[in-house]
Amino acid sequence: xxxxxxxxxxxxxxxxxxxxxxxxxxxxxxxxxxxxxxxxxxxxxxxxxxxxxxxxxxxxxxxxxxxxxxxxxxxxxxxxxxxxxxxxxxxxxxxxxxxxxxxxxxxxxxxxxx
Length: 114
Prior knowledge:
- The structure is a single chain.
- The protein is mainly beta.
- The protein has no helices and nine strands.
- The strands form two sheets. Strands 2, 3, 5, 6 and 8 form a five-stranded antiparallel sheet that branches. It has a four-stranded antiparallel sheet with strand order 1-9-4-7, with no helix packed on it.
- A hairpin with a 6-residue loop joins β5 (51-59) and β6 (66-74).
- The chain is elongated and about 45 Å long.
């Protein structure tokens, strides 16, 4: 049985979150069409007070998620980049875990998958 597929890079800009919560779920694999296993998460933070904590979760079934980029603490405004390789999953979601020192921060997630 031959399996045909193509692989491309997926770029995704999520909406900014102004409170802890989950970002939009992104499907990064589809049987016989495309499959990814390396991911880059860029996080742009504005109006930070003390810090924010973010992470990237992956799932095989779209229901049960686990961190594939562990919780990262960001302590200043600006953009941070995190990557992980060799973690094939079907779904990704960025997570704004928590905020310390106030409630003014906004977090914008961007994802790339190859």
